[in-house]
Design brief:
The chain is about 25% helix and about 25% strand. It has nine helices and 16 strands.
């Protein structure tokens, strides 16, 4: 059976600042999907990570389907109305266009989709990050699909012996989608050269070279490229198929124990460690730290099984403690050096106006 898995995510209002959506907001989104998804969707799951609401759904309409995307857009509008009525912060924040136009790509919400013929058993992982940008997935995807230190299947499984193909997007190019396809292991160093720059080059998707099927899909939206100003961090979502010709669940999860430093934190303008958190985790310290949740499902004939929280395990409590220490240490550095993002990532913030005013005061000393 050919099935499409879509996840569409947006921040449309939050309690107490950038902390979490209200229960009424979540109910408004879910009720809209429940009532308007009949005959369109096979199944769905509504969740939140930090202040972002995610609509995960299955259907047979294909990727970028106008009806599916419009339903999600209108569900977020329903949530926005509740946010306004409750006086929540940032009501409709990620809905950057006035009207729907075909699909939600380029309109604010983050989107990741995969279409494939179901295997007899079809497990997949759904990642949702908050207070960071799409490049936060670069290192985990590099290690989970290309490094035998994390993916032992590259050594042990014949179904992965040909490696994978990375589709990498230059998200700084705004005229159209500028993408390069690189194969590993042959072009591993080329992949590394791009993925080190998390703010410009982002993994869009990964394909198996053994069977040609898609293994991963990542949202690549940069909100400041759409809005022309800082409106909040991009808070990316990701779908990853696992087992068989793809890495095992544990191999995909393994790199998240690093707590890598990513862009985000307060006002989206700092550097902080990425913390793997349980589902429905809120935001706290310094509007962070940057967080990522992971929910596992199997899908059969388009129907989702019950969800499993992949970071709800004692091991990840240990990781969270370590990440908390890393967050504390880099925050001691405040606004200086690596603790705050470079000028190129702050160009849509108020600091640019400040620097432009100061620049006029400079004098050439003779």
């Amino acid at each position: 059976m050919k099935v499409t898995i879509s996840v569409i995510k947006a921040d449309v209002g939050s309690l107490a600042g950038h902390v979490k959506p209200s229960q009424k907001l979540l109910e408004a989104v879910e009720n809209y999907v429940k009532n308007h998804g009949k005959g369109l969707l096979i199944d769905y799951n509504i969740s939140f990570t930090g202040d972002d609401v995610a609509i995960l759904c299955t259907h047979q309409q294909g990727k970028l389907n106008e009806k599916v995307h419009k339903m999600a857009w209108e569900a977020f509008l329903a949530g926005t109305e509740v946010a306004k009525a409750q006086g929540l912060y940032g009501a409709g924040q990620d809905l950057l266009k006035d009207s729907f136009s075909g699909n939600v790509k380029g309109m604010g919400p983050a989107v990741a989709e995969m279409e494939f013929d179901e295997r007899p058993n079809e497990p997949f992982l759904f990642f949702a990050a908050d207070k960071t940008d799409p490049g936060a997935y670069n290192l985990p995807l590099y290690l989970g699909f290309s490094d035998p230190m994390h993916n032992s299947g590259l050594l042990l499984s014949p179904s992965m012996n040909k490696g994978f193909s990375y589709h990498i997007m230059d998200v700084s190019y705004t005229e159209a989608d500028r993408v390069v396809e690189l194969n590993v292991p042959e072009e591993l160093y080329d992949v590394a050269a791009l993925l080190r720059d998390q703010e410009r080059f982002v993994v869009e998707s990964i394909f198996s070279r053994n069977n040609g099927e898609q293994a991963a899909a990542v949202s690549t939206t940069r909100l400041h490229n759409i809005a022309g100003k800082y409106t909040g961090k991009d808070d990316p979502v990701m779908l990853v198929r696992v087992q068989g010709a793809f890495p095992a669940t544990g191999e995909v999860l393994s790199p998240f124990n690093i707590g890598q430093y990513v862009a985000g934190f307060m006002r989206g303008s700092h550097t902080g460690p990425l913390m793997p958190v349980k589902r429905f985790t809120t935001i706290s310290f310094f509007d962070g730290p940057p967080v990522v949740s992971c929910t596992g499902f199997c899908v059969h004939e388009g129907k989702l099984t019950e969800p499993v929280d992949c970071f709800d395990h004692p091991y990840w409590d240990y990781v969270r403690d370590r990440v908390s220490e890393k967050a504390t240490e880099i925050r001691k550095q405040g606004f200086v050096g690596a603790a705050m993002l470079p000028f190129s990532e702050l160009e849509y913030g108020g600091i640019v106006d400040k620097l432009n005013k100061i620049d006029k005061k400079f004098k050439i000393r003779k």
